[in-house]
User: Fold SDR family NAD(P)-dependent oxidoreductase from Streptantibioticus rubrisoli.
Amino acid sequence: MSVRDPNAGATGGAAAGAVAPLSGCAALVTGASSGIGAATALALARLGAEVAVVARRTERLEELAAVIRGQGGSCTVLTADLADPVQARQAVDDAAGRFARLDVLVNNAGYVAMGTVEHSDPADWKRMVDLNLNAVLHMSQTALPHLLRTAAEGPRGVADLVNVSSVGGRVVRRNNPVYSATKHAVGAFSEAMRQEVAARGVRVGLVEPGMTITEMATGAGRAAARDLPQNAWLRAEDIARAITFMITQPPHAAVNEIMMRPTAQEH
Ligand SMILES: NC(=O)c1ccc[n+]([C@@H]2O[C@H](COP(=O)([O-])OP(=O)(O)OC[C@H]3O[C@@H](n4cnc5c(N)ncnc54)[C@H](OP(=O)(O)O)[C@@H]3O)[C@@H](O)[C@H]2O)c1
Assistant:
């Protein structure tokens, strides 16, 4: 992988001398070895957060960490298979232990295998349920005491949990039943958890990307490209911008949900 920072050299970060908006914050981003997770980790680091990144491919994470450190940021690499609840919970504990706090958790790791009920493989169903849903449940519960403590005691007065769902979490299509089911479940879980913790300063946000150029969407036999030419798709950095928009709101304001599609995507 060549990790590319589209904002390198741009003036989108904190102005010289100004305090970066997430300075002093610690963030954990799942599925950061590629795509949206990598772009989000870079964006959070540029905003001043110390980041921990987790996925299975350690070398890809190390490459990302080198880019972040090269820009003066801090990045901790954690390797885990988040489909395993024990490893998923441990990743949160490791990140929170490393930073002695946790301000932000971005549950981004995901897997898609297209296919109708009749013709899809139950092994793929399990992979999607374990990663897209169960990992989100386990990591959110494990992170919650840390996020509540940060919200109560930290200088920002809030903490953030962002779950990356999908347009498929709102719009059902017949060739994508299980992925869509997991993402709908993430949406329901996010809203219930938002209500549970809203009064205690933890913001729970849901981001629903449309077609985005990443390995998931462009890999052989993965997500259907439908009729949209790839040059019209979103870039991972577009979704990272939506995520950082949520996280950098003032403490009294919570952006609960963002669906972001390519301009030309109809459904
Ligand atoms: N791209 C799109 O068009 C699109 C549209 C809607 C929603 N989304 C959502 O966006 C999120 C990010 O996807 P992406 O598009 O950025 O795809 P991606 O580039 O394929 O990234 C997926 C990430 O998940 C990680 N991952 C997969 N299985 C894992 C496991 N068992 N344990 C730990 N990490 C695992 C991968 O890392 P390793 O392989 O190194 O483990 C990778 O970092 C997903 O939740 C996806 O459903 C994407």
Remarks:
- The radius of gyration is 17 Å.
- Residues 7-14 have pLDDT under 50 and may be disordered.
- The chain is about 40% helix and 15% strand.
